[in-house]
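User: Run a structure prediction on this.
Assistant: Running it now.
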Amino acid sequence: MKRFHQVILIVSVLLGSWLGMQAVHELGHVIGAWLTGGRVIAVVLYPLTISRTDLAENPHPLPVVWAGPIFGALLPIAVWGVAAACRMPGTFVLRFFAGFGLVANGGYIAGGSFDGLGDCGPMLRHGSPIWTLWLFGAITIPLGFCLWHGQGKHFGLGSQRAEIQAVVAYGTLAGLVLLAALGVVIDGR
């Protein structure tokens, strides 16, 4: 049963981090659009696609496009920080998610800069120097790895592995199911 809980925990955290990272990233674009007078017409979070935010009007595209990765990197850190300060059980999951957000957003922006992939195309077209995309990745990716450092024990890995708590494993599974359902509902498929 212990191995079963470990598998549930690891798979749920990995898949949930992917879906959660996309949701937080797109939320950043939505907030950026709202703050700059843009009009959002669709947010695609369907679990089997790459997320995106479609705008009908976007008078200030540069802040909107940057809001996604910046918000996607900072909000998970803030949530983890609050949870850690409150000493909530299972906080290590939020720490992993914060690291995931940093690595994923940083890798996406730094790596995408070379061929204008996704958000990087509008960033470059609207005036962001390519070095700013690289700098974003150079800051966020190592910070994400720092947050991940030493966390394997909470997932039952390594020589100092902790016992997996069933409530945390099932909680992460429930979170994964909720994120997948949210993506289906928002997408309307």
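The mean pLDDT is 94.
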